[in-house]
Amino acid sequence: MEKEAVYLNVYDLKIPEDPTAVGRWNSYLYWGGLGLYHSGVQVHGKEYAFGGSACSETGVFSVRPRNAPAAVFRESLLVGYTEMPAAQVDSLLLDLAAAYPGNSYNLLQRNCNHFADELSVLLTGNHAPYWINRMAWLGSQLKCVLPEGFDDPFGASNSSSELLRATPVFCIPSIDDAIEESEATQNSSSDDEN
């Protein structure tokens, strides 16, 4: 059976006010084993990641490798190899998608890096490097000094926009809903032409 390489793609987060700020901070923090990172797992030509949203639908999404939204690609790390064929990986991702709704996102305890680590272990048996998510771990240890609701950007306690928010992932409808919506749009446009 042929083995497929599994990569962890690591990104610097971008903030709208200054898209390069986090990258500059990370350049210094990196040497201390810290940083504010986004990560996704690349396998069989796709990259999978998890992001937060206010929706109960999945927060798991796929992108073209090394092209995560709201992030600047930093590096790609070989995590290991998997013997799972693409169809089996897709099946695994469907299970994970159900376990990772967008509204379960938590900046310190259930973020994109937690998802990437879990997927890495399921595919290869190897964890993502600990420095990828060390800042979240540190934050969870010092939670008492953080503003209330800081770690839950989509929670009820965060109706204001003052707190750091995760990059939202659009609510993804089921494939059946998407097909119905597409057919309805096509039907209404053909009705307009008549």
UniProtKB/TrEMBL annotation:
One of its GO terms (biological process) is proteolysis. GO terms for molecular function: deubiquitinase activity. The keyword Iron does not apply. Residues 4-150 form the PPPDE domain. Keywords: Hydrolase, Protease. The keyword Transmembrane does not apply. It comes from the Eukaryota. Belongs to the DeSI family. This is PPPDE domain-containing protein. It comes from Timspurckia oligopyrenoides.
